[in-house]
């Protein structure tokens, strides 16, 4: 288990991220099955809020984990796993931004 307060925050933020992203995807699946799914992201607020909240929580967890490992010398395995999940989320977020800007091909 994490020893530092920031390490504990990292783990809880990543857990929150995963839960919110799962909720957002479950909403999409439920709406698709009911035939009421809207394919645009920002017009479907039932999906937008959990997905955006998950992104924010994941990125915050990633950066909190970096600070915990670097400055507070956190060495918990759970924090490193959270960092790996946060890094994956960060890379996907940057790739999405670059594809929107036309620098990368769409994913």
How would you describe what is shown here?
The protein has 107 residues and is mainly alpha-helical. The chain has one domain (5-100). It contains three helices and no strands. Helix 1 runs antiparallel to helix 2 (45-70), helix 1 crosses helix 3 and helix 2 packs across helix 3 (77-100). It is globular and about 50 Å long.
Detail the topology: elements first, then pairings.
Layout: H1 5-34, H2 45-70, H3 77-100
Helix pairs in contact: 1-2, 1-3, 2-3
**Mean pLDDT across all residues, rounded?**
90
Q: Describe the sheet with the most strands.
A: none
Rg (C-alpha, Å): 16 Å
* Structure summary, number of beta strands: 0
Order of helices and strands: HHH
Shape: globular
Number of helices: 3
Structural class: mainly alpha
Terminus-to-terminus distance: 36 Å
Strand content: under 5%
């Amino acid at each position: 288990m994490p020893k530092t307060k920031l390490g504990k925050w990292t783990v809880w933020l990543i857990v929150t991220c995963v839960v919110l992203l799962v909720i957002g995807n479950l909403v999409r699946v439920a709406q698709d099955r009911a035939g009421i799914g809207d394919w645009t992201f920002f017009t479907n607020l039932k999906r937008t809020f959990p997905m955006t909240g998950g992104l924010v929580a994941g990125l915050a967890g990633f950066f909190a984990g970096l600070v915990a490992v670097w400055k507070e010398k956190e060495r918990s395995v759970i924090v490193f796993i959270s960092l790996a999940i946060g890094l994956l989320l960060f890379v996907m977020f940057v790739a999405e931004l670059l594809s929107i800007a036309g620098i990368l091909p769409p994913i």
